[in-house]
Amino acid sequence: MEFSRLRKFTALAGVASLALVAAGCSGGGGDKAASADNPVTLTVTTFGTFGYDDLYAEYEKQNPGVTIEATNIDRGSNARTDAFTKLAAGSGLSDVTAIEEGWLGSIMEVSDQFVDLKEYGAEDIKGNWVDWKFKQGTDPNGRVIGYGTDIGPQALCFNGKLFEAAGLPSDREKVAELFGGKDGSWETYFKLGRQYKEATGKAWYDQSGFVWNSMVNQMDEGYYTKDGKLNVEGNKEMRAKFDMLAAGTADGLSANQTQFDWGNGKAFVDGSFATHVCPAWMLGTIKGQLESAGGGAASGWDVADVFPGGASNWGGAFLSVPKTSKHPAEAAKLAAWLTAPEQQIKQSAAANNFPSTLEAQAKIVEAAKPNELFNNAPYGAIFESRAEGVIAQFKGPDDSVIQENVFGPALKMLDSGKGTADEAWNEAVKLLNDLVVNN
Fold first, then answer.
1. Does the structure show a pLDDT above 90 at 341?
2. Where are the beta strands (DSSP E) in 250-310?
3. Contacts of 355 (CB under 8 A, 6+ apart)
4. Global pTM?
5. What are the CA-CA distances from residue 187 to residues 240, 241, 404 (Å)?
6. Residue 61: enclosing H or E segment and its boundaries?
7. 336, 120 in Cβ contact below 8 A?
8. Model confidence pLDDT, tens digit, residues 110-138
């Protein structure tokens, strides 16, 4: 990775050059198996809603001598800043560190700073996972640096009460048909949004950023081509999608909410918008927002087995072990246990996400446990269906930077009515050159 490109981490994440990361800093010694006579403290850092609290306690009970000290960072972008700051410093990463799919590409450029989990049995359990998920956690040299936690197949969340008020069907199966079922398209999504806006005077989606991320994730190649080249400027398909979104936002379909805030959840209970893109993990996020705002099942939210444009994956995480861990064997053991099918089932129940292991997926579908908060939606069956046809998109080293710091401000221009599609796109291109190309 070129030094000039690394300077953007200083600007965006408060990070010194990654080129200065100390190579091969393993803890050395101190990796004797934990026991009552040899107590070991393992640190873990996750972000967002992981649903691990009860699992930590269960693991400590099953493994005398192990104490887990857990840190949870509010969102993935802040966890990215934290991780790269500590990588640059050469110390400070937790024994088990969660990595988000969106910045996995940048982690792969410093993958030699993480333990190869093959040394601790990764090959013996690789069959647990959906094939593409295990491959995502494998670096170009064949080293396994992350065990997959969840995946993010996308469905469509909608508010049945608001749909009924607008004269639209509220039954989730009829809603799926309304959006076109397997032939659902973004054209239909925006067309229905305009109908809803005309009937109610209210917004259709919370803000443009999440819709845009979903649209880009469906492309065969997103911000990068499959061979790692930037893929934004001159990309006619991407620009056409941007113009479609800009037109919808100009017609008042965006509620101009703040990402991961929504007025501390108020927008989910006051009718501010009627639909929301929903990778599986988003249901856990919405649950937290509803609880913050005093809402619940009566708020009217539901989830349908449909998504505009077809199959798409957004997000999902991995558990890694940095070489700076003083207890890599114990850390790898914990990471493997937390991501095993049995634990992924429990994690799914706690965090409302969808597992990446085949056995866990099958058992969740078989259990057919309804999600009470989302109108008793058959959660497992819906997301199993939405996972069909998903192909993991290649994520380049600055993928999350482009999403948040390049297109984020441009999309906010659209949401706030302070720019045309041309002006917003040109702003994105300018930021791309300032923050990625020329740094």
1. yes
2. 275-279, 301-304
3. 149, 150, 151, 341, 344, 345, 347, 348, 361, 364
4. 0.87
5. 12, 10, 25
6. helix 53-62
7. yes
8. 999 999 999 999 999 999 999 999 999 99
